[in-house]
User: What shape does this take?
Amino acid sequence: MADDFDYVVVGGGTAGAIVAARLTEDPSTTVCLLEWGQSDVGDDDVLLIRRWLGLLEGPIDLAYRTTLQPRGNAHIVHSRAKVLGGCSSHNTMIWFKPFPDDWNDWVSLGAAGWSNDEVDPYYDRIPGPHGIVEAKDRNPILFDWIRACGSALGVTENVDWNAAPYRDGAGFLDVGYNPANGVRSSSSVMYLHGIMDRPNLSIQTGSRAMRVETKGGRAVAVDVLRDSGVRDRVSARKEIVLCAGSIDTPRLLNYSGIGRRADLERLGIDCVHDLPGVGENLIDHPESIIIWKLRKPMGPEGCMDADCALFVNRLGADDRPDLMYHTYQMPFTFNTERLGYEVPEDRWCICMTPNIPRSRSKGRMYLLSKDPDIKPALDFRYFTDEAGYDEQTIVDGLKLARKVAAEGALADWIEREIAPGPGVTSDSALSEYGRAVHHTVYHPSGTCRMGDGGDDLAVVDPTLAVRGIAGLSIADGSIFPEMPTVNPVVGTFMIGERAVDLIRARNS
Assistant: This one.
């Protein structure tokens, strides 16, 4: 193929693989898919869901670091995957359909056309497979944990997380994987593996997008650096679609001179288009952790050692849960160990991680240099919302986790609490601990948010077109105006599917 296509898709990740695959279902449409990393085909470390933990900070991980956080943990590494499938090739593939009001919230923030009734049909287009963790992968301790959640907190046991909206619940997770072979249902596996030889699709791995070239207010080409060191130019007749994720999409826009003028000029980057919202609205699902040592080992490993979840509606202000937990059957001690807490042996501990489903703290991503080899800054401003909602959610979460641990047969498993330890009881002490050891579930989002013409910080309009630049759109988690309540991978699949219809309508 020549270096001239109808569409150029930058990033073969969670949404990008979908956009490229769906656009090329029309045999008259040519698409170039540019992926910075390599293919996932034949790479069991990527494909097998059980191996997810070994990918963190490994060869395919871009491993972006958090800036100093005055009220939170500044030692967090935000993993981003440089491989076909992107973060859907790098995560635990926990499969949650977003809540109807997650989409409806977007509409209230200016995303017309993104109501649940309009977006929900796209869920049925996602091939899968996915399903509740298989019986053979269910660890014995988790049955007692689910019952303890029900009796201690009054939540519904064994929820089908994707059947209908729920206010609360505890149960085994729905996971996007094939239980027959353990292969994850990443966007690459679902959408690209079967069409690698499609003649109108050019999948170019080892190809980093360095700059979007604009001419007369229109995006016309992408400057590409190949792994070989060669620089190329790949042009688009109709549209360039950025799907590089919530860090690298705004990063690329800034390198291309699209962003806040003052920031670009301070770094010596010529401003092509002043778009101040690029990199703003950085949001996440922060979570803390509480760890118990067990009296006995818990048995064989599960599907991916994070096989259950708990959702709680503790405030009653919304029909959606306002507190979430993953439960881990491993010593997940990234941050407690740094503070001197004991690290239990594998299989001899259980952890609960109070997580903020809709965090109110917002930060920003920004460049530190015009040198593309210098990683950008990620300032999440964790626990800085004025009302202290995020901080109180973590405190409440630690207290409720202790109630679960003291209940029924689960209590018989537990020898003692390791972190924070039974002596930490006051709200202020729990807050200090909870914020010091908090982590991320790797969901940075929102940095090119969608909005209407009245939103000065909106980067894309409700059709996903970049404001002020023709022939350029974004389809990835960076367009989130607000965080969905649940893990965002399925929502991002839905964005990829919907983006294709919007792109086709715009270019028909």
User: Anything to note?
Assistant: The chain has one domain: 4-507. The first strand starts at residue 4 and ends at 10. The longest helix spans residues 489-507. The radius of gyration is 22 Å.
